[in-house]
């Protein structure tokens, strides 16, 4: 009953129950049973529905997918910077003048990386707003002790 009351404290509409039950806590136990074979029909739970369930689980309790774009942007901009530095070094040290395509590639990669970093930062803000609008309780108390 305690777990049900704690779940009722959450005003959000789309509850990912597997995650919510784990997040709320409480005592858990394993119930072993023998599942009978399906007598008629086929399961309607296919790979696409399993994929959507996984996405729901990931996005309900984490902003990590949004944060990934910051890291990808840093990696792309870093690779572009290193490649540009190598091109400059190659030109100055060995006289191999690199023209056209490689310098264009470095410019596009660097600017694309900067854009991905910006998208990642915006995603962080949006993710934090999303978590705040869920209005989940910060803490779930197991019990109360009165001190006199």
Automatic annotation (TrEMBL):
This is Glycosyltransferase. The keyword Lyase does not apply. One of its GO terms (cellular component) is plasma membrane. The keyword Transferase applies. It is a multi-pass membrane protein. The lineage of its organism: Bacteria, Pseudomonadati, Pseudomonadota, Gammaproteobacteria, Enterobacterales. PANTHER family: PROPHAGE BACTOPRENOL GLUCOSYL TRANSFERASE HOMOLOG, UNDECAPRENYL-PHOSPHATE 4-DEOXY-4-FORMAMIDO-L-ARABINOSE TRANSFERASE-RELATED. Keywords: Glycosyltransferase, Membrane, Transferase, Transmembrane, Transmembrane helix. It comes from the Bacteria. One of its GO terms (molecular function) is glycosyltransferase activity. It is found in: Membrane. The chain crosses the membrane at residues 68-89, 101-126.
């Amino acid at each position: 009953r305690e777990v049900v009351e704690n779940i009722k404290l959450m005003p959000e509409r789309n509850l990912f129950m597997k995650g919510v039950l784990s997040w709320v806590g409480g005592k858990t136990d394993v119930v072993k049973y023998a599942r009978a074979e399906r007598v008629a029909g086929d399961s309607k739970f296919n790979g696409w529905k399993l994929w959507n369930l996984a996405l729901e689980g990931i996005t309900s309790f984490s902003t990590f997918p949004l944060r990934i774009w910051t890291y990808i942007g840093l990696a792309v901009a870093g690779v572009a910077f290193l490649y540009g530095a190598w091109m400059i070094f190659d030109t100055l040290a060995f006289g191999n003048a690199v023209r056209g395509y490689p310098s264009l590639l470095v410019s596009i990669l660097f600017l694309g990386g900067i854009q991905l970093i910006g998208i990642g930062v915006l995603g962080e803000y949006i993710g934090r707003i999303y978590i705040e609008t869920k209005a989940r309780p910060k803490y779930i108390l197991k019990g109360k002790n009165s001190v006199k």
